[in-house]
Specification:
Largest sheet: 7 strands, mixed
CATH class of the largest domain: Alpha Beta
Structural class: alpha/beta
Strand content: 15-25%
Number of strands: 10
Number of helices: 8
CATH architecture of the largest domain: 3-Layer(aba) Sandwich
Radius of gyration: 19 Å
Distance between the termini: 42 Å
């Protein structure tokens, strides 16, 4: 299967399916249907069947999906059947919150380093992590072979830090800075700007 041929909009829905299935599993359910999943997520049953069938036949007509099997398959497809090391750049309020967040590990991610360019913050402890100097970012990230980074820094320095991350071999960046980043084709960027999402919602109020 060529990952590039699957539309990004489908990939974006897979974590929603994974989360719903995990919740069902925690509640003791062993099987589900596209109809039941759809009702939980507000997505049509037909859309769910179409999305999942892009990756193979994981359900049976009349019996639906075996939850443990589909969970394993979705984790495999999303490559979260392993633990990915992640770094955070920026130890302000958002960086602090992400570094302390307990929900990453059971979903496939392990925050291993946090960086900042503020000399007053370097050396500060955040949970089990010690804030490292951004000047050492390229060397430390490259040595550790880390592929994923989260940016919680001002827009004014985001591109410069992104260039350093690319140099260090990072291939996936979750960007909280309100700026579009320029990256090579083999580097994926996801943008999270809470103000943009709020503006999108106020349209409906």
């Amino acid at each position: 299967m060529n990952a590039e041929k699957i539309p990004d909009v489908i990939i974006a829905r897979l974590p929603l399916y994974l989360r719903a299935l995990q919740h069902m599993s925690e509640n003791g359910l062993k099987s589900t249907s596209s109809q039941e999943l759809g009702e939980k997520l507000g997505i049509s049953a037909a859309q769910i069947r179409k999305d999942i069938s892009q990756f193979g036949e994981f359900g049976k007509q009349g019996t639906g999906y075996a939850i443990p099997y589909l969970l394993d398959k979705l984790r495999e497809i999303l490559k979260v059947d392993r633990l990915w090391d992640v770094i955070i750049v920026g130890s302000g309020d958002m960086g602090h919150a992400l570094a302390r967040y307990q929900g990453f590990t059971d979903r496939g991610f392990n925050v291993v380093m946090i960086f900042d360019n503020d000399k007053d913050k370097v050396g500060e402890k955040i949970g089990d992590l010690t804030v490292k100097d951004s000047a050492d970012l390229v060397e430390k990230v490259k040595t550790a072979g880390i592929k994923i980074a989260m940016l919680t820094i001002p827009a004014s320095v985001a591109q410069d830090i992104t260039d350093k991350l690319v140099e260090a071999g990072v291939k996936a960046i979750l960007n909280y800075a309100p700026i579009s980043l320029s990256v090579p084709n083999d580097v994926k960027v996801q943008y999270i700007d809470p103000a943009t999402h709020l503006q999108r919602m106020t349209y409906y109020l």
